[in-house]
Amino acid sequence: MGQIDERYAFDFYPLESEQQTRIAPFFQHLREGRLTTTKCTACGLVLWQPRVVCAHCHAEAMEWIDLPKEGTIFAHTAVLAGAPVGFEKDVPFVVAVIQLAGMDFRVVARIDDARYEDLKIGDTVRLKVVTLPDGRVWFRFVPAK
Description:
Blueprint: H1 24-31, E1 36-40, E2 46-47, E3 62-66, E4 70-79, E5 93-100, E6 106-111, E7 124-131, E8 137-143
Antiparallel strand pairs: 1-2, 1-3, 4-5, 4-7, 5-6, 7-8
């Protein structure tokens, strides 16, 4: 068994290179400002989160598709305590279930630049790409203004 890189032992964010994951294009697309996922070319199912094998027909024939950059809040909550390791200093923050237009699934993401009290179900939010200090990327949303 190889050495564990202790920098990532309690890290919330995934490793992103082609050597570490088969969904590396997802992270490259985020760097380009695009939220993407996979669609099975065998049965047409759109999958969230991106997959390398279709959950419906088990095919490995996947293509990358762009998702809408805007959505609406389906539900939301405030994290006031008990945040994951590394996020303690961010408390309080908002996490929401986002309905992306035209999609049959919802996305769970953090909402930046907003307090829980200032948001309501049905509010429009837009994609925000976050670059971490080590160069990795992740997605969040912010209120659309």
